[in-house]
Amino acid sequence: MTSVMLLENIHESATSRLHEAGLEVERRSGALTGAPLRDVLASHDLIGIRSATHLTADDIRSTPRLTSIGCFCIGTSQVDLQAATAAGMPVFNAPFSNTRSVAELVVSEAVMLLRRIPEKNMLAHTGKWAKGAAGAVEARGKTLAIVGYGNIGSQVGVLAEAMGMRVVYYDIQPKLSLGSARAEGALVDAVAHADVITLHVPATSRTRYMIDAEILAACKRGAMLINASRGTVVDIAALAQALRSGQIGGAAIDVFPTEPKTNNDPFVSELQNLPNVLLTPHIGGSTEEAQENIGIEVAAKLANFHATGSTIGAVNFPEVDPGPLQSPARLLNVHSNAPGALAALNTLLAREGINITGQHLQTRNDTGYVVTDIDKPPSAELEQALRSHPGVVRIRVIRRQDAPDSAA
Ligand code: NAI
């Protein structure tokens, strides 16, 4: 029976979804490394991890049984994707499951900052009563600048407009504006008149320290800055300076250039103890709902790949969606993307008198992936011949339950 190992306390929603697909599921609460990890990889068909389990090229190369990897999170940098592709293994993640959680936090932080709640809260905790309206304003009618108008950024815009904010955004790609949001052609123009600036870009060489002393100086005096994207996007020293001088009126920061690895490690930041600064421990997307959705989304992708060979949503692989299996068998073939691979496969099938009822091919860089529906399952000899053909990385056969045994 096909078995799945879920590490790192992945939400129970994943187990239910995999059980529904008829898969056997084992669970462990922590991450694994070294020999225990290798043992798990060698004895399961599918594995689910979160961010603490690292799958190196050596780990991946030593796992002929494993067919696919599910990252039950957003990022996939904990997996050597190149090695996974070279081994013919699609890697899946959950890019959208926590979008709403981040967007809700950001919009509520905008309100908190505009009302100067962090400093009033800090004073109240130390026995001081700071009742007064000075400097506290409504979000309604204020301008929100969104830097990076992708999944999260655009969702933030929709929520902010519902509260009556004016939304401008800056993105390096042309985007469809939702609601009345207005695109700006340059970062400096987006931030110049904004009361609140929120960052939703990925960590790239272009976004590294994109919010530096120069951009902070170009902001409207007293503007609020929110960063729930990646820690490298903001020059923290420059931000601390801008907060001290009043150029920036407040900040909500969820991500940091260096973050503690565990909840037991100390957290140190130049932004600590500054008034009107909200610091959160990278929890923008951390909600019960997001975890549940991530469990369902990645488990569904793993189950679908197992049952049909679909690689839709894989981060490292040619995307093929062959749909449910109608023919007696389906052959999944991962190969080096070189001329003649498809012809060689079809010739081998024809030699055994197997008729092709459908075929889907996609390539991505050096990898080709072809899913072939056939009118009878291949014999063990043919499977072996397909496997040992030059350029073939991986072969898997999916048999319809009621199909005859083989072509022999
Ligand atoms: P996305 O890929 O949907 O959107 C990113 C947008 O940024 C795209 O529209 C892209 O064109 C744009 N972009 C890229 N480089 C740019 C540049 N130099 N200048 C302007 N725009 C640029 O990503 P998504 O899902 O919206 O995530 C955004 C960020 O949020 C990512 O960094 C992600 O890691 C982070 N994130 C943080 C979480 C948290 O817990 N704080 C949870 C989930 C995501």
Sheet with the most strands: spatial strand order: 8-7-6-9-10-11-12
Mean pLDDT: 95
Number of helices: 13
Q: What is the fold-level CATH name, i.e. the topology of the largest domain?
A: Rossmann fold
* Content of β-strand: 15-25%
Structural class: alpha/beta
Number of E strands: 16
Name the CATH superfamily assignment of the largest domain.
Answer: NAD(P)-binding Rossmann-like Domain
Distance between the termini: 24 Å
Fraction of residues in helices? 25-40%
Described by strand count, sense and barrel closure, the largest sheet is: 7 strands, parallel
Radius of gyration: 26 Å
> What spatial form do the alpha-carbon principal axes imply?
elongated
CATH architecture of the largest domain: 3-Layer(aba) Sandwich
Bound heterogens, unique: 1,4-dihydronicotinamide adenine dinucleotide
